[in-house]
């Protein structure tokens, strides 16, 4: 076309936005605004703002807003609705609300964009207040609220809204809201509720929807039901990169490294190009299986074959691979030479590996780095104290403890949690406030189960529970072990179970850096993202 007109530019911008190519749309918008004599109309302005919203490009969005204010379309409701959406997606809902208040005749799009902006920014009460004021709440408004709450970490509130929506009889003609509800179950690791949500998906006929199946795979994997996750995956008629990545990451997190790598080979054979998250799961799998060479090869392939720039998460997984396998010099070299700045958890992972492999000199050097960058983190002090204690450097142990007091660093108590029926119970170390404390105490005294809480020696148990437990604080250790016994006693007491000798179940403590397995008798508990979930009987 020798000289594109406004209609042709508008069509190109719309196509770019629909095809998820906002970078190209923004580049074209610069051409329209700076090198042509055309005056954009409200459709062109709305498309440009949408591109800024999809890129969360706040600075460019403000610049376009300034141009709009100088144009004849400064009061156009379509343009203003797009501005609300842009500011909401950029995380500045107050700016969005300013535009919202200036609209003469609010429509469903404006209401929904504003509500979603508040919800996804964690402004729960403002979102609920606006949602209650909305005159005609359709499915998309409910979806905006539920998805916004789930994205901002208010999964329970999102699920409550989903139940309320169902009670009001809202017709679910779009499955996106189901994806958000299943995602909430995944984030909260509520297996029973997740199964019920799966039933809703089947009842409404959306099980064949790819992104719904992807959400179900992720949910079951995070709830430690990898068998159900695999079943959903195998039933899919079409898998995209998210489908493959979800099942690969899920199997990797459940210690099935060889199967995760086999799935990756199947994925490549199917012609699906892996993304950055796929490689996070693969390197994670290699880390937990000790496959150092394979992990190196995958990292190299990610960069050279697929052109993926490694992120901090990739480097952290590679660091974990080296650390777990005892390649601590390689790990330290990686952390000091990688092009992205390591964060505190990255250094802390290397510190834990040094403690595990007895590299005290390296551990002390790393601990000094951590304490200078994040002096308020109690786990670093506790790890350093344990390192000094293991090396019989008691004077330094005392110095660390005094430094903690001077810095007013408080240790977060360890805890265990359990879901029974519709109730969740949390047991903290040293806690005496549980309403059933007397029954639990009697059960501990009378039942032989308490003798099987740990078959190892007390010292071995305390070593397993690191880094959260301070080896120099015997009272703290006593409270931790008592908490663990209360957890198992309560769970057994409530279920009216007879202790058995079946092997294979795991009891997980919720610690700051990792969950540590304790072998015990009954198959009722399995570790998951949330901590401890009683999901099998």
From TrEMBL:
GO cellular component, one term: extracellular region
Pfam families linked to this entry: E_motif (PF20431), PPR (PF01535), PPR_2 (PF13041), RALF (PF05498)
Highest taxon above the source species: Eukaryota
GO biological process, one term: RNA modification
GO molecular function: hormone activity; RNA binding
PPR repeats: 107-141, 240-274, 275-310
Compartment annotation: Secreted
InterPro entries: E_motif, PPR_At4g14850-like_plant, PPR_rpt, RALF, TPR-like_helical_dom_sf
Keywords: Disulfide bond, Hormone, Repeat, Secreted, Signal
Family: Belongs to the plant rapid alkalinization factor (RALF) family.
Protein name (Swiss-Prot/TrEMBL): Uncharacterized protein
Originating organism: Lupinus angustifolius
């Amino acid at each position: 076309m020798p000289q594109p007109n406004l209609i042709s530019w508008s069509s190109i911008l719309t196509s770019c936005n629909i095809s998820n190519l906002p970078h190209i749309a923004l580049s074209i918008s610069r051409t329209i605004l700076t090198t042509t004599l055309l005056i954009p109309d409200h459709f062109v302005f709305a498309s440009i703002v949408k591109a800024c919203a999809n890129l969360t490009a706040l600075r460019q969005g403000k610049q376009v807003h300034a141009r709009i204010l100088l144009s004849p379309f400064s009061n156009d409701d379509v343009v203003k609705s797009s501005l609300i959406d842009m500011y909401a997606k950029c995380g500045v809902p107050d700016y969005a609300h300013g535009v919202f208040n200036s609209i003469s005749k609010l429509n469903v799009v404006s209401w929904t964009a504003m509500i979603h902006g508040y919800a996804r920014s964690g402004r729960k009460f403002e979102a609920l207040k606006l949602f209650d004021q909305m005159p005609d709440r359709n499915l998309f408004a409910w979806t905006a609220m539920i998805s916004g709450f789930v994205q901002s970490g208010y999964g329970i509130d999102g699920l409550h809204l989903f139940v309320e929506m169902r009670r009001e009889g809202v017709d679910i003609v779009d499955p996106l809201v189901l994806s958000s509800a299943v995602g909430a179950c995944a984030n909260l690791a509520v297996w029973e509720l997740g199964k019920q949500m799966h039933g809703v998906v089947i009842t409404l006929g959306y099980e064949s929807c790819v992104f719904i199946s992807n959400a179900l795979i992720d949910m079951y994997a995070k709830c430690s039901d990898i068998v159900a996750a695999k079943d959903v995956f195998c039933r899919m008629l079409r898998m995209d990169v998210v489908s493959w990545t979800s099942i690969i990451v899920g199997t990797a997190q459940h210690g099935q490294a060889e199967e995760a790598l086999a799935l990756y080979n199947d994925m490549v054979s199917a012609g699906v190009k892996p993304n950055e998250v796929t490689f996070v799961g693969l390197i994670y799998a290699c880390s937990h299986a000790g496959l150092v060479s394979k992990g190196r090869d995958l990292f190299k392939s990610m960069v050279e074959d697929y052109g993926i720039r490694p992120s901090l998460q990739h480097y952290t997984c590679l660091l974990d691979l080296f650390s777990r396998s005892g390649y601590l010099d390689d790990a330290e070299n990686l952390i000091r030479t990688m092009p992205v700045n390591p964060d505190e958890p990255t250094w802390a992972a290397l510190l834990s590996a040094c403690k595990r492999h007895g590299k005290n000199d390296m551990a002390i050097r790393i601990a000094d780095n951590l304490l200078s960058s994040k002096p308020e983190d109690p786990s670093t002090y506790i790890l350093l104290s344990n390192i000094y204690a293991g090396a019989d450097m008691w004077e330094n142990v005392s110095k660390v403890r005094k430094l903690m007091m001077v810095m007013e660093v408080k240790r977060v108590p360890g805890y265990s949690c359990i879901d029974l029926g519709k109730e969740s119970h949390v047991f903290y170390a040293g806690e005496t406030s549980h309403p059933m404390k007397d029954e639990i105490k009697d059960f501990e005294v009378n039942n032989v189960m308490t003798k099987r809480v740990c078959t190892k020696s007390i010292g071995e148990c305390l070593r397993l529970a690191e880094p959260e437990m301070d080896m120099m604080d015997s009272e703290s250790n006593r409270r931790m072990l008592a908490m663990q016994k209360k957890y198992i006693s309560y769970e057994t007491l409530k279920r009216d179970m007879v202790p058995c000798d079946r092997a294979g179940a795991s009891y997980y403590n919720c610690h700051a850096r990792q969950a540590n397995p304790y072998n015990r008798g009954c198959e009722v508990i399995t570790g998951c993202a949330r901590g401890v979930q009683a999901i099998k009987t």
